[in-house]
TrEMBL record:
InterPro entries: Ig-like_fold. Gene3D superfamilies: Immunoglobulins. It comes from Methanosarcina baikalica. This is NPCBM-associated, NEW3 domain of alpha-galactosidase.
């Protein structure tokens, strides 16, 4: 016998021996499905299979209507009827109660609800009626409120929620507390300068309102273009209490850092009466674009093949209402520095016309109480044009335009009579 055959025989013997040792613990099969089971070295006991338990859950009874949705003003009430039908085989003692709706922050106050009768017996198959009254307090904040009316204590074992419920949804009108001169500030500003804005606020409620204005960022992505680079240095000054009917000023100071670039976007939350804003007080949107004055002019070269006169126009547009709430520094009018060269030699340009035009509305966007002189007309777009003429000549030209106090501009070069 070869050495490899001998090793193989020994290995097979050891495997058989190992199986004999482990067989009682791992390979024994019961002789019967029920009762005791014997194997060579002992007895298995209590191996009778357990009966399968089926959880049918609580009985779902019939509730009609299953939901109620209404819009109720402060100080008003609403009434409706709801029926409960016992779909089970046992008599039930029904005691309706208010339970909260999961995963909501606007649960309806239990004190608003009255249910009559407070309890009632329902036999199997029997239907009972209940009268429900909803009364909204006069000083309640506006919003959407929710609740369940639970007619039994049955709980769904999987969700741990009441099963036999009716859903209530009540909308309460949002009554304005404060009115603002404007609900946004949008401006182009320069790095290193300090800007001051003032917004008038009127309390239109019938009672005093407290405010605590805070700068807040929008819950959106903030990248290299939209950023809140200097929200921590903006200062807000306003009275903490505004009396009913009173008009006050709120000032916003914006010291722009020297290294600020891009666009800042955020808003001022007024935090009225120390509560979550229910919409009765508008927020003030903020949008500041930090501009940089260009260091060199824009250069345009062109060529002429006739001696016709040359007309050059530069123009720009500005946007925003006249009553932009900026107090300082005063907004400067746009302007241009133009230089022209003909065959590399400077040429004098004659300014022949400046034109200003615009669009005007009747002031619908500004409340009348916020206008010091009751002026209703507001200009929201201005178009500015400068027109120059130059005697024509054949050759090469170079026009340089250096803009001031403007973000964009346009130009036109007309050869010949521009009329």
């Amino acid at each position: 016998m070869s050495k490899s055959t001998s090793l193989k025989t020994i290995f097979q013997f050891l495997c058989v021996l190992l199986c004999l040792v482990l067989m009682p613990a791992t390979f024994a099969q019961p002789e019967e499905l029920n009762g005791n089971v014997t194997y060579e070295n002992g007895t298995y006991e209590n191996v009778t299979p357990e009966s399968e338990v089926i959880n049918e859950g609580p009985i779902v009874h019939e509730i009609n209507p299953s939901s109620y949705d209404n819009y109720i003003q402060q100080g008003k009430s609403s009434n409706f009827n709801v029926s409960f039908k016992n779909n089970g085989n046992e008599t039930l003692d029904i005691k309706p109660k208010i339970v909260p709706v999961p995963y909501t922050n606007s649960n309806l106050n239990e004190s608003w609800i009255t249910i009559s009768p407070t309890n009632m017996t329902a036999n199997p198959g029997e239907e009972q009626n209940f009268a429900v009254g909803i009364n909204v307090p006069e000083d309640e904040d506006g919003g959407r409120y929710e609740a369940y009316i639970s007619f039994t204590d049955d709980i769904d074992p999987y969700t741990a929620q009441y099963v036999n419920v009716m859903y209530l949804s009540i909308g309460v009108p949002i009554i304005p507390k404060l009115e603002l001169q404007t609900d946004y500030i949008s401006d182009t500003i320069e790095a290193g300068k300090e800007y001051e804005y003032a917004i008038k606020i009127k309390n239109v409620a019938d009672k005093d309102v407290t405010i605590d204005p805070k700068i807040t960022n929008y819950n959106i992505y903030i990248d290299s273009f939209y950023r809140s680079a200097f929200n921590d240095v903006i200062e807000i000054s306003a009275p903490s209490i505004i009396k009913a009917g009173e008009i006050v000023n709120m000032s916003i100071c914006v010291p722009v850092p020297e290294n600020a670039t891009g666009t800042y976007s955020g808003y001022i939350e007024m935090n009225p009466d120390g509560k979550v804003n229910d919409g009765s007080v508008p927020q003030i949107g903020l949008s500041f674009k930090v501009k940089r004055q260009p260091a060199v002019p824009y250069v345009k070269t062109f060529n002429t093949v006739t001696t016709d006169p040359i007309t050059i126009e530069v123009s720009t547009d500005t946007y925003g209402l006249d009553m932009l709430p900026r107090i300082s520094p005063k907004k400067e009018e746009p302007s241009f520095e133009l230089n022209l060269k003909y065959n590399s030699s400077p040429v004098n340009m004659t300014l022949v016309k400046t034109t200003q035009s615009g669009n005007v509305d009747n002031g619908y966007s500004i409340p009348i109480w916020a206008m010091d002189d009751n002026t209703t007309y507001q200009s929201y777009n201005k178009h500015y044009v400068e027109t120059y003429t130059i005697p024509g000549a054949i050759g090469d030209w170079e026009l340089s335009i250096f803009p001031k106090n403007t973000e964009t501009f346009g130009y036109s070069i007309v050869l010949g009579d521009s009329k």
